[in-house]
């Protein structure tokens, strides 16, 4: 079993409130806004010289033209020999060196750096994604999900040994419980999948294999027939995580006895409805959290893979290479502002996660590295990849839709119908001082109600002075 990781980042006091049971609410479905791409600001000419900044988001606005947050977590040295052979030198409290190249970081606790802003951004309506990247055996899976016993149902409190995912959802449901009122209601549902040899499998129902990724103009990218489960507490989420992780594809190599052989994606969609009593309007927000545990890059010489394991490794490296190629193009577009074809469809992984890569999401890359001399090449490659990702610019927006209260609109329409009936019965006399309206004017008012209620409202043409009877279906209003 992999030993506990000790981050390069110093530890801070845990800021993870205990979970609570939010009220179950009726599900509301709506489509996030699609933000038009704007030309991103030009970063420095050499993105590899940029400092890795990991500062939490203190404020939330309705849009964010931001770069990718990059965090590095260092696997602990297991024995004195590894310490002597360590390829990484810590230069100061906020920098390290490998192969003569210096890399900067900020000294903050990982959960404070990633988890806290992720939850706050989610509740504000932003999509957020965390990618765990690194060579096989570097601790990506441990960092993301934690040790298996940390997800057990009997563990009511998640400690600092817990992975990022359970701590994120512990805080999320605690914050939902704080925020939820009669006017503000939340609903969450989750899914869990893996991409293995370019085939998508539902980890919550392993019988669903080779699922298809679809793209819809209204709902965006989705996986057809993927299981979605309603969740109300962190325990609900942990049960899904345990079930999915038991169903994922793993295999033994000389580097890692339980090597993940697939990319896994856990998604939680958070929907909220805020009803204003003052102006009788409702605001709907939807946000998505993607936690992505990428399969580890491998070198055949290091892992000793042969036969089917070698074929698996080839597929993993090919998928990661396609991701790297996409990252290079996105970094170039952000750097130069030139328009280029973005090859999202080169792989199932990039197709599924294209919103997180240069799109409407806040993205964090969590790089797991090893200090061992034998891993020098892979560690250096991981840090170089991190610097390229840092050059990408995402355009995250708050996914919010505002609706007038439906009951209010229905009341207005009924008043207009009564007025229309009166006009058709008694005739329209502008000099009678009753404040009445002509049939044509009432009809135009009814037409204006149509897009606000999202109901088809078919009305026959009425001449202002005509005697034609007009019927309005009561059930259509």
Topology:
Layout: E1 63-67, E2 69-74, H1 80-84, E3 88-92, E4 95-98, E5 101-104, H2 110-124, E6 128-133, H3 140-145, H4 164-179, E7 184-196, E8 199-202, E9 213-216, E10 220-223, E11 229-231, H5 234-247, E12 250-251, E13 259-260, E14 263-276, E15 281-293, H6 300-303, H7 308-336, H8 348-352, E16 362-369, H9 376-390, E17 393-397, E18 400-404, H10 406-426, H11 439-453
How would you summarize what this structure contains?
The chain is of the alpha+beta class and 477 residues long. The protein contains eleven helices and 18 strands. The longest helix has 29 residues, at 308-336.
Features:
single chain, 477 residues, alpha+beta, Kinesin, 2 domains, 9-stranded mixed beta sheet, 3-stranded antiparallel beta sheet, 11 helices, 18 strands, 30% helix, disordered N terminus, disordered C terminus, coiled coil, Kinesin_motor_CS
Shape: elongated
**What is the CATH topology classification name of the largest domain?**
Kinesin
Look at the structure and give the CATH class of the largest domain: Alpha Beta
Q: How much of the residues is beta strand, in percent?
A: 15-25%
* Record field, number of beta strands: 18
Class by SSE composition? alpha+beta
Rg calc: 27 Å
Number of domains: 2
Mean pLDDT: 74
Largest sheet: 9 strands, mixed
What is the CATH H-level superfamily of the largest domain? Kinesin motor domain
InterPro entries: KIF15/KIN-12, Kinesin_motor_CS, Kinesin_motor_dom, Kinesin_motor_dom_sf, P-loop_NTPase
Region (Disordered): 1-64
Keywords: ATP-binding, Coiled coil, Microtubule, Motor protein, Nucleotide-binding
Protein name: Kinesin-like protein
């Amino acid at each position: 079993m992999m030993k506990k990781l000790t981050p390069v980042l110093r530890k801070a006091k845990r800021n993870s409130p205990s979970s609570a049971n939010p009220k179950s609410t009726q599900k509301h479905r709506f489509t996030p806004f699609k933000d038009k791409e704007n030309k991103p600001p030009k970063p420095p000419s050499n993105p590899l010289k940029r400092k890795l900044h990991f500062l939490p988001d203190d404020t939330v606005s309705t849009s964010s033209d931001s770069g990718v947050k990059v965090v590095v977590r260092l696997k602990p040295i297991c024995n004195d020999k590894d310490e002597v052979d360590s390829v990484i030198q810590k230069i100061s409290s906020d920098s390290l060196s490998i192969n003569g190249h210096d890399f900067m970081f900020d000294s903050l606790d990982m959960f404070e750096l990633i988890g806290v802003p992720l939850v706050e951004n989610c509740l504000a309506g932003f999509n957020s994604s965390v990618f765990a990247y690194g060579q096989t055996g570097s601790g990506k899976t441990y960092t993301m999900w934690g040790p298996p016993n940390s997800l057990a149902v009997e563990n009511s409190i998640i400690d600092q040994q817990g992975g990022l995912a359970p701590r994120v959802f512990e805080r999320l449901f605690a914050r939902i419980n704080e925020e939820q009122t009669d006017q503000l209601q939340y609903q969450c549902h989750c899914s869990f999948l893996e991409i293995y040899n370019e085939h998508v499998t539902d980890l919550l129902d392993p019988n669903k294999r080779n699922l298809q990724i679809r793209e819809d103009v209204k709902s965006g990218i989705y996986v057809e027939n993927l299981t979605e489960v309603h969740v109300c507490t962190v325990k609900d989420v942990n049960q899904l995580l345990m079930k999915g992780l038991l169903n994922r594809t793993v295999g033994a190599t000389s580097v890692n006895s339980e090597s993940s052989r697939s990319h896994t994606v856990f998604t939680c969609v958070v929907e909220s409805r805020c009803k204003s009593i003052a102006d009788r309007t409702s605001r709907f927000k939807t946000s998505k959290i993607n936690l992505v545990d990428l399969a580890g890059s491998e070198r055949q010489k290091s892992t000793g893979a042969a036969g089917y394991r070698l074929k698996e490794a080839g597929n993993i490296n090919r998928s990661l290479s396609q991701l790297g190629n996409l990252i290079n193009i996105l970094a170039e577009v952000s750097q130069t502002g030139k328009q280029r074809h973005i090859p999202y469809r080169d792989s199932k992984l990039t197709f599924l996660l294209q919103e997180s890569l240069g799109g409407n999401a806040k993205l964090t890359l969590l790089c797991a590295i090893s200090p061992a001399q034998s891993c020098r090449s892979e560690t250096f490659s991981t840090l170089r990849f991190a610097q390229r990702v840092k050059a990408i610019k995402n355009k995250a927006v708050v996914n919010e839709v505002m609706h007038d209260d439906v009951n209010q609109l229905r009341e207005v329409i009924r008043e207009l119908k009564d007025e229309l009936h009166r006009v058709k019965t008694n005739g329209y006399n502008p000099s009678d001082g009753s404040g009445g309206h002509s049939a044509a004017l009432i009809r135009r008012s009814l037409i204006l109600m149509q897009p606000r209620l999202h109901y088809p409202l078919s009305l026959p043409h009425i001449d202002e002075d005509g005697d034609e009877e007009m019927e309005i279906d009561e059930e259509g209003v």
